[in-house]
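Our consortium's second objective concerns turning raw sequence data into structural hypotheses that experimental partners can test. To show how far this objective has progressed, the report includes one record in full. It was chosen at random from the queue rather than selected for favorable results. The single chain below, 493 residues long, was entered without modification.
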Amino acid sequence: MENRCYEDRIVNCTPSRSRSTGFLLMRVNTSEEANVSPTQQHAVHIPSSALQRSRGSGSSEEVVLVTSVINSTYFKTRPRPPRKGSRIFLPPQGPQGVVLGELVLAVKAGIIPLRNISPPIKLIFKKNPTVQNGTCVFWKEPENENEADGWSTDGCNTTNTGDSFICSCDHLSFFAVLVNPDISVDETNARNLNYITYIGSALSVLFAFMSLFIYISLHRRRPEKATGLHMQLSAALLCLHLTFLLCNLWLWLPFGTGDGLVCRGLGLFLHWSLLATLAWLALEGFHLYLLLVRVFNIYVRRYLLKVSAVGWGFPTLAAFACGVSGVYGKYELQIGEGNNRTSTAQMCWVQSPAGHAVIYVTVGVLCLVVLYNSCMLALVVFQLWGSRDRSGRSGWSKTGADGTKMSREKAAELWRNGVTVLGLSCVLGLPWGLASATYMSLPGIYIFTVLNSLQGFFVFLWSVALSRKSRCDSSSSAREPSSQKMMTTSFNH
């Protein structure tokens, strides 16, 4: 009831500074619309018809209008009281979210409460461009003992103009805008994520080089299409992680500048390497499609030459076009908690805001590649599951020692299937899909950073597995379970 008491006495009292950050009390003419701005981020527009209703039966042409901006910590949603005969408190009702700017706008006019105002009052809450969605709400006091106070949208409509939220409400009360909580990274976590990224990228450079060496050796010993694809992907990953480290190192140097030719060239090469990596990930998925779906029509003349033209040609043309438009240079990322941005991370990349369109297109390409390769991986899982069912039916009739041996073989095959799927997930670049987790929680950011900074290491593990399989006798291939055939046949032809 404290907020209701505050609303009743606000006309006669001046709130303390600890409670209110913006307070205006004035007398306004009821024949004119009232326009008030208690702070630079808030504005109130009340139609004259509402002001005339607020004066009641009084004859005065003026009424007292009070607007106050209050810290949102005074508005805490509480669990609803338990039902009769129960001790369990129910969760709060109404919309949930974070109060925009942690500020609540209180509006009071005249001597009588106003309800069902037409036309409605308009309240303007200015916002940052990064805030996308919000909902206008007001603080609703409980009307009986079975209710709890909380935010409500009754009688309020929300309009998003890009730089502000406009709330159209049919009553006067305590108003706010609820937005989804932002996942902010403070300086400590940003420092930890930087260490993980740099160490992981350095390891990926090393392991991508080793993978490239292994694939070259395999290709010389037994030229195969899949080995050539893996070799190209390893080269793209090597360029990507090496260029990423150079783009950060250059601006750390005392003579490194963000507007020079070197930084622009590094930004162009980083973008080119990223597009090349995405292109070769997509080609890995395309090759898997040819092997699993078009098994009887897989021959393509000069196959490696054609896929190389796509894998390296598309990134080259795209990076050249972006370079001509001059979008490369120093990229700055503000770091801090909430609105307190205390430091800046810099690297040579796409300049802001000139390169926003380039970043959006690149993210779109990433999403398409992840979606396509996810479908290819699902196809692999379907194939493995089908072969498992066939092998399971053939072993139903075995009992005793043969049955125990068969169970162990099935368990080993299930393990190999899982390893195969996991390895294919890394080769197809599916950890990139975890980028969506960075918008949900801080642990999601850590998981995404660790897995993608170590992608070169995962490709190296896959190359070692293929190298070991290539040393096996070809005569044992007929006795191999489905997962081993998937690893050798699908990626070695």
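The partners drew two points from this record. Confidence is low (pLDDT under 50) at residues 85-91, 336-342, 473-493. The two ends are 75 Å apart (CA to CA). Both points have been shared with the crystallography group to help prioritize constructs.
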